[in-house]
TrEMBL record, chain A:
This is Amino acid ABC transporter permease. Residues 14-210 form the ABC transmembrane type-1 domain. CDD domains: TM_PBP2 (cd06261). The chain crosses the membrane at residues 20-40, 60-81, 93-112, 124-141, 153-177, 189-213. GO terms for molecular function: transmembrane transporter activity. It comes from Streptomyces antibioticus.
UniProtKB/TrEMBL annotation, chain B:
The keyword Flavoprotein does not apply. GO terms for biological process: amino acid transport. This is Glutamate ABC transporter substrate-binding protein. Residues 1-22 form the signal peptide. GO terms for cellular component: extracellular region; outer membrane-bounded periplasmic space. Keywords: Signal, Transport. It holds the Pfam family SBP_bac_3. Transmembrane segments: none annotated.
Length: 221, 284
């Protein structure tokens, strides 16, 4: 029944999905944390930038962002991301697009986590002479992160599935191979089921593990 | 405990999903082998075409349809006893063609549907009605003249398409291949110089190059990199419809409508069409 899988590198395609997810997750965690810091910072210009960025980027469809990275940044403005090879270039552009998009959601999740930290803690931190950066880094963020592991897991699962959009600019991940296989084999339903199963295998453990972690690490108040 | 419940539930859901798809596949085959398939009913005929391929099947902003596939479909429908106003064109994307036929959503499909062995197991084909070749569209001052010239060149095609696979496997494995989800994006990349060539069937490329905004900018390289026999897809087992369509196609060629349709749709791109193919003759 599954003989149509022969000759296709299904595992390789899912490995590409994992690589896209992992790199974008790390990138968006860093950029999202910076954005969240900007949104609560005392400098109005930074607050404005953070708010504008989040509200604009999260309201643009991901397909548009990724296509813009390739059609706009690479083709028109000549941003090559350090490689002339379209395969590598496409991968890096896709990571760029995914980070830009996902960071907006990470930022908002994190900001909601900061709101769970009692205001008195920030005031106490300031009272003993900590700067804004120190308050954020030593007092607020550690507690905020522990309370938003659950929401961040949702963002990560969404990101895993969103990587399929990268097929639109020719990154050879799972959805790309699915297109190729459907073109060649005329077996839409079975091929669809195989790839749906693959994504469940990727995302279900993520949800279970992070769900367990969020219960263990949550700050009890 | 909770963990185990969740895994058990999800396993059940998965098993159900797999079972459902398997059943779907089986019953499709059963239905396909016996019956002759339902028409749209109410004196209408539903025909599958593509909406996004200028020159072949294109839905225009005013809602009308144009292209070679559309002309062929209209002619064939007329021979089956349907006037143009009784035809309802339905979009059938590449991935959906076999299912649309099996479900009986459309009576037949004329949508750059290349006849090949895998597809023949799922659907029956009338025709072929056009022999196309994989080719390159280049800027009008380009000097690419053979397939191996592509090694090291920048090239664009559509994700997962047969043409893209051909390039990577046999024609020019060292070509730097950019893939987009539709040909319009490739044409844009060709226009602004990001890629040196776009590759797919010459008929599709000619259709793009014949559009008003691109007239005179691009030319076909004229390489015959593959043979694509466009057939008309019909539900598996529906031999009477296949016969009727084959007769209609023969008549279309003999009364000159075929040549007229080719000239009207592929004209301005230096497209050298093949002679009308003989019914049932597949050029490998």
């Amino acid at each position: 029944m599954f003989d149509f899988l022969e000759g296709y590198d299904v595992l390789g395609a899912f490995w590409m999905t994992v690589k896209l997810t992992a790199l974008s997750a790390v990138g968006s965690l860093i950029w999202g944390t910076l954005l969240a810091a900007m949104r609560v910072s005392p400098v109005p210009l930074m607050r404005g930038f953070g708010t504008a960025y989040v509200n604009i980027v999260r309201n643009i469809p991901l397909t548009v962002i990724i296509l813009f990275c390739s059609l706009g940044l690479a083709d028109v403005f000549g941003v090559t991301m350090g490689s002339e090879d379209f395969k590598i270039q496409g991968f890096r552009l896709a990571v760029l697009g995914l980070v830009a998009y996902t960071a907006a959601f990470v930022c908002e999740a994190l900001r909601s986590g900061m709101n769970t930290v009692p205001l008195g803690q920030a005031e106490a931190a300031r009272a003993i002479g900590l700067s804004f950066t120190q308050t954020l880094w030593l007092v607020v963020l550690p507690q905020a992160f522990r309370s938003v592991i659950g929401p961040l897991a949702n963002v990560l699962i969404a990101l895993t599935k969103n990587t399929t959009v990268a097929a639109a600019i020719g990154v050879a991940e799972a959805a790309y191979l699915m297109k190729t296989m459907i073109e060649n084999e005329a077996q839409t339903l079975l091929i669809g089921a195989v790839f749906a199963f693959g994504f469940v295998v990727l995302t279900l453990p993520t949800g279970l593990i992070l769900g367990w972690l969020s219960k263990r690490l949550a700050v009890k108040r | 405990m909770k963990l185990r419940k969740v895994t058990a539930a999800s396993a059940a859901v998965l098993a159900l999903a797999l079972a459902a798809t398997a059943c779907g596949g089986d019953s499709d085959d059963d239905a396909g082998s016996g019956s002759t398939g339902g028409t749209g009913g109410g004196g209408k005929i539903k025909v599958g075409i593509k909406y996004d391929q200028p020159g072949l099947g294109l839905k225009k902003p005013d809602g009308s349809f144009a292209g070679f596939d559309v002309d062929v479909a209209t002619y064939v429908a007329k021979q089956l006893g349907y006037e143009p106003d009784q035809i309802e064109f339905v979009e059938t994307k590449s991935a959906d063609r076999e299912n649309a036929l099996a479900r009986g959503d459309v009576k037949f499909i004329a949508a750059t549907y290349s006849i090949n062995d895998e597809r023949k197991q799922k659907v029956d084909f009338a025709g072929p009605y056009l022999l196309a070749h994989q080719d390159l569209l280049v800027k009008s001052d380009s000097d690419i003249s053979k397939g191996t010239d592509l090694n090291g060149e920048k090239l664009c095609s559509v994700t997962g398409s047969t043409s893209a696979q051909n390039v990577q496997k046999s024609i020019a494995p060292k070509a730097n291949l950019k893939e987009y989800s539709s040909y319009s994006e490739c044409i844009a990349a060709l226009q602004n110089g990001t890629v040196a060539a776009v590759t797919t069937d010459d008929s599709i490329l000619a259709g793009f190059a014949a559009q008003d905004q691109y007239k005179g900018k691009f030319k076909l390289a004229g390489l015959k990199l593959s043979n694509e026999n466009y057939g008309i897809g019909v539900k598996k087992g529906d031999a009477t419809t296949v016969d009727k369509i084959n007769k209609a196609l023969e008549q279309m060629v003999s009364d000159g409508s075929w040549d007229k349709a080719v000239a009207a749709n592929f004209g301005p791109a230096n497209y050298k069409n093949e002679q009308a193919p003989k019914i049932g003759v597949i050029v490998k």
